Amino acid sequence: MQKFLYQLNETDRRIVRKWRLVTVGFYGSILAGMMVYAALHWNPDVNYASAESAAHAKLAGAPVGDRRSPFQP
């Protein structure tokens, strides 16, 4: 049968408090993730980084002209 918090002894109360914190943190992080996902996909004007981006990084000081940089594809 379920007991209320005031019916438990002190050591069990400590354990219940720790598990309550873990549970709230776990479900809170899931809820926060869903809110971020919804916020990013709700408005089509929001831009965020994607692995499918066609932009390529350029090296600072890379030679210009006929010579190619060793890191250039």
In terms of topology, how is this protein built?
Blueprint: H1 10-42
Transmembrane segments: 21-40
Keywords: Membrane, Transmembrane, Transmembrane helix
Overview of this protein structure:
This protein has one helix spanning 10-42. The chain has 73 residues and is an all-alpha fold. 45% of the residues lie in helices and 0% in strands. The protein is rod-shaped, with a radius of gyration of 26 Å. It contains one helix and no strands. The protein has a domain at 18-45. The mean pLDDT is 75. The termini are far apart. Keywords: Membrane, Transmembrane, Transmembrane helix. The chain crosses the membrane at residues 21-40.
Any key phrases for this structure?
transmembrane helix, membrane, 73 residues, mainly alpha, transmembrane
How do you describe this structure in short?
With 73 residues, this protein is mainly alpha-helical. 45% of the residues lie in helices and 0% in strands. The protein has one helix at residues 10-42.
